[in-house]
Structures
1.
Amino acid sequence: MKIVVCVKQVPDTTEVKIDPKTNTLMRQGVPSIVNPHDKHALEMALSLRDQLGGSVTVLSMGPMQSQEALRECLAMGADHAVLLSDRAFGGADTLATSYTLAAGIRKIGEFDLIICGKQAIDGDTAQVGPEMAEHLGIPHITYASQVEAGTDGAPVRVHRDGEEGTEILEVKLPVLLTVTHYGDGPRLPVVKGIRRAFRAEVDVWSVNDVEVDRNVLGLKGSPTQVRRIFSPDKRCGCEMIPGDACAAASVVATKLRELRIIGVGS
Amino acid sequence: MDFKLTAEQEMLRKTVQEFAAKEVAPTAAQRDEDEQFSRDIYNKVGALGLTGIPFPEEYGGAGWDNLTYIIAVEELSRACASTGITFSASISLAAWPILAYGTPEQKKQFLTPLADGSKLGAFGLTESGAGTDAAAQQTIATADGDNYILNGVKTFITNGGEAEIYVIMAMTDRSKGTRGISAFIVEKDTPGFTFGAVERKMGIRASATQELIFRDCRIPKTNLLGREGDGFKIAMATLDGGRIGVAAQALGIAQRALDEAVKYAKERRQFGKPISSFQGISFMLADMATQVEAARLLTYRAAYQKDQGQPYSKEAAMAKMFASDAAMQVTTNAVQVFGGYGYSREYPVERLMRDAKITQIYEGTNQVQQMVVSAAILR
Amino acid sequence: MKINSELCSGCGACAAACPFGALVIKGNKAEKTDACTDCGACASACSFEAIQAGSGTDNGGDAHDLNSYKGVWVYLELKDRQLRGVALELLAQGRKLADEMGQELAGVLLGDNVADLANEVFANGADRLYLVEDPCYGRYDADQYTAAMTELINTYRPAVILLGATHNGRDLAPRVAARIKTGLTADCTGLSIDAETGLVAWTRPAFGGNIMATILCPNHRPQMGTVRPRVFKRAEPDCGRTGTIVRAKTKATTSRVKWIKSIKSLKESVNLEDAEIIVAGGRGMGKPESFALVSELAELLGGAVGASRAVVDAGWMPADHQVGQTGKTVAPRVYIACGISGAIQHLAGMQGSDVIVAINRDASAPIFTVAHYGIVGDVNEVLPALINEIRCATA
């Protein structure tokens, strides 16, 4: 199976802080990581390849620094890595980003499966995956948690998680999946994988290497624009309940009764 | 002089940290409490490829360097000192002498499984009457046709009882003094090779420490490592490298103690403030941090020197001596920062302090290290 | 966005505040890179007034053509043949937007035999209902629903479309937006009309919840957005209200995805998004075994069990219990946070809860900045005491 996994290098937003004096983002010193959902997507791809044979290519769009993220994916076991990097791609919203990635995939060539993380932890939109599928004219399934592949050419079964439970869907390849969590989580790179990754070439493609309409790239090709960035409101005034565990528990139980959560005959 | 590690080494460090957090740290306190050695954890260390880091690819290794291996020892020890020493004893003390002195057949048969992690190794030099006076070997190896017959008892052997491959020092010619000691490779389950008392230790309680008993133990002549009479030289050279491993273990323990103390000092409030805002505490933490940094630089420098093919005996001794003393001081102060809670087994620092002590003692007591360093500088 | 290099001191505050990493300091002066989106965060952070925020990019679209799009649409998602809560919330909010814009509010309903829902749609504020009925819409399917929505949009040309940021809403909206080639804003928590431009201002959390961004879609139509459930309140239904039903016909299409079957959740208690009460545990619980206390309390209160990302990553709880920016977003009546420190991405997932009770050993834990009631103590002491109190209270 030929699988392409889209990954993004993102700042570790769990480490980002807000400057309390100016109420602005403090991005300095925040480590860059592979978007966690993308690692789960990669793990799904690697598991399928280990099971069925084939290859896994990781694709990213970003500045040259994104090569670090791609190397980590190679260390985990991906076979090839491609980076789309060019000034022309910069400032893109999800429509322009998905368009660019789709162009990259067309250049990669034949594929059976595209797997993306559901959302990036900086943009948090969860839109690029389905939009890519639309640009490529292939079906998509979001919230995929499991894939069962049959023999050559047979349709695959995908488990899709919903609010009320899981559905099982059947679709012929090629298809694009988006993933939040997969199995026990992404594998750690093994030592030999790390050595291989640092000896491998990451293909870097500029705007001239892909077939695109320049008017739909980057900031120019983005229908949505950011009007304003601000810090979320801070709520004030938490009522601290004093006393030891029993005293505090008693107060909470009273509050729950007042809210009619308990003592209303369930 | 570039003090930075390569991006590749940083990825290795990060990988070992994640591995240790998931597979080693969660059970460390319980394994210490139960004095339980975990072969399962060692198998996972092997599966990750850590056991092969400093060995050539042709023997199942990664063809990488000693500094990278030392980083792995440090990060494993940070989570669990017992796991750290299990790993470094197998790699530095058992696998390395086979790499350095073994025949191609011996390397293929014994080094490969140690490098790929499928087997565990141990090193048998110490005896009840031969600690610092390592040359006072009572274990003898008598030549007999195509074999040697071993007789004697080794004590305080790390990985004893669990390891499959042992590098054993024994006397082949008493009349020659240290030149009469030879090194042998002995496998577990060889008739005449049994295990004795299990040591009940103050610290590194999840590491296996046991007596080795040789009674008319017959091994093939092809298991002689190096030539007859090379044993003492092999042992000393092996310990030089092992010392860097112990320094890295001590460094890992010290770093962990520092991290725990800093975290606690920021959370614990007395007199309406976090205790980190009191100079009595913050100055202590500053000193601890400085000691850890210094230990790191000495340890990495010794490993670097070994990688460069330069003599490293003095640097290794300095690193081991300094890092182990630093670990002892840093862990003691960490317990102090925690106050009463530091003394309780519910918190990790008392274990760190118990674990740190042995690093000042094994693989050459710090007094032996002083002898090595003074000999080097007074030459 | 322009930087006045004479006023620039090279302090780097702008670079630190940029969510896109689009500013670098070179030769002690700030410079922008091509990652810049003109969001203006840097201008706010600069104390030397050296940055002039941009006024937006002209990126195509015909002004006359844009004004011909009229009406606010709400996509009406169904659950078990009933309107989902979020659909009603969006009708209420959509009504306010429509009134401000001086335009009509319409609901869009795709389904099989669902015409009986029309009254509820009008009672909740819609002027018009686009009703598309066919067995092929009996169950959500991306291909079918995208084709239908696209046809409706191309025929009736709405100015704005609101969808719930549910699993299906976030599946459908981007596919439609890409087919129409318009702008889509995800997971909004704030909606208003921008006074200057008359455009919808979509406000949403980003960066793991660390910042809020307000987005506009100036030159493309319809302006689309998915909206987070349980953020807006539904209106009091006015059963006397009536409206126009437009029975729209759509071209038949085949779907490339075949539904095989549904596996219901083994435990209803994992349905966090709809839960009224959630008891959640974090790493402060100490060890996985202590989670039994969290489950016990949840069960006693008839609620669901939540977990922080830390405990899911540590393997103490399965991922479908995770609450947070990358887990589930919840807004129950009561959220009890046990041993959760309150990292920003966790707060982003639960701070909309009506009443938050937090228990943590550390008085400076960020969870207390959003909690309504806080207890500084050991969860392993407080929870058993609370469980005991509640047992006595309900005995």
2.
Amino acid sequence: MTGRIFLFGDDIDTDQLAPGQYMRGGIADLAAHCLEGVRPDFAAAVKPGDVVVAGRNFGMGSSREQAAEALRHLGVAGVVARSFAGIFYRNAINLGLPVLTAADLPGVTDGEACQLDVDAGVLHLPDQEQTVRLDPLPDNLKALLADGGLVPHLKKRFAAEEEDRRS
Amino acid sequence: MMGMTLAQKIIARAAGRDNVTPGEVVTARVDLAMIHDSGGPRRVEPILKELGAGLFDKDKVVLISDHFVPGETDEGARILALTRQWAKERGVAFHDGEGICHVVLPEKGHLKPGMFVVGGDSHSPTGGAFGAYMFGIGATEMAGVLATGEIWIKVPETILIEWQGRLGPGVTAKDMMLAACARLGMDGGQYQAIEYAGEAVRALSMQERMTLSNMAAELGAQAGLIAPDETTAAWLADMGGNAGDWRRLFTDADAPLMAHHVFDATALQPQAAAPHSPANSAPVDEAGNVAVDVAYIGACTGAKLEDLKAAAAILKGRKAAAGVELLVAPASKADQDRAQDEGIMAILEEAGARILPNACGICAGYGTHRLGENVTCISSTARNFKGRMGAASSKVWLASPYTVAASAGAGRITDPRAMLGEASA
Ligand code: SF4
């Protein structure tokens, strides 16, 4: 799926992703305010397939799972950053939000077309006729993401085990 | 082949590998999973139901009630009832009302050097004091662990925090951590493993080491390890346990370190962290003239037997100043019993302390003693985020049990060392 790049800087924190004052509502309400502090139109403008590209330490701050959930709710295809805060990284993978690192992201511009291929670990930039290589994810995390996160992944696994027992 | 850090050695073993490299993602088997009443049954059971899963091994799961104990509100009582019912149905080890999870877990012999352990609480790095790789996870991940016994982990880099020299009298592990928070910041460890080493760390007792590991969470680390030694082995033997094969659990001299921070224990002064962050720490003398309304000796990091002893060393023959409410919530029942036997509880009570249940209490923002509007509190707990212990307008300073006790006695934030001198003279 082709989407567009939404470009951010360093140190995007969990309070920007899931603002504390909207935590009491459901995920839809919360997602509507995702990143509004840095980019007021983000939640309204972002569409399924779009990719968030950021600098260092993306997702720093609290351990709230909603920070990753909000992006996933908005249909973001994934986040590519120089580095992620550890707990956010765990939460994102477990909630099925692809998060990939890249040491260098030369020439990626805000708003340009892109396709994120999580399995191959690349970001295609068709307008530039360029493909950016991302750090590859290990197979166990790819499997988790392909299934949509930890809970669906385990459901599938248990169902398969059940099937084995019966056959 | 390059040597390995202590963290790498434990994770490699849990992942069934000869070696692992920082940055690599592996799937590891957990030796133990700890949950409490707040993040435990009430949150994991619905997910287990959804998965149609049972426990991977009920003998490797420990449940401890501490957050809602003693169940003062309807909600708390309901959560405790649900917790107790779950323990019965699932047949796991359950410590109910015996104290705060991070203190009860090792005290009851559940932790051993070299274990790979997850906990459903952010201060789970406490287990690192015993040379176990222990870290905190959320409820969804915990449900996954309970169902499978497995978890994925990105092998962390290690940051070495070395304390050279010896601590002076009246200076504690809490002061070491507050000073480290001030220097390195709240994200001084970006989910890496911290390892504490050096002469001052070696000289610490197990309970003091637990304070270092506990507050690795305040530095943003995933784990806070201390290589096991004779002190660890002796303590575990005392608790009726066995340290096992601890001698191979250390960081090799040629292991890769991400950073190495050196601190001087000899020069360290008692610290106090101003509201609302542990990183706002400075020597107590620099706090200025701060009157306190409440002095709280509590929490997993600040009310173990040795913390109670420290407070009593200051308060012996003294009383809390007029207008200061002195609250003491011993971290575990076992520690309170020992403090009782040693006359420590009597000293604290004579000083005017109100003794609260062996639970998280106001550290978690629960209970009848939550801080009211505009109250200034000095506390031996681990974090002083805005509103955590009560009203958003309350102000919490963090300090060692010595400093909290001295401040209770003086009615204002005070360096404990002068009083310690008088008390011992
Ligand atoms: S005492 Fe405080 S820091 Fe410790 S587990 Fe309870 S709430 Fe957390």
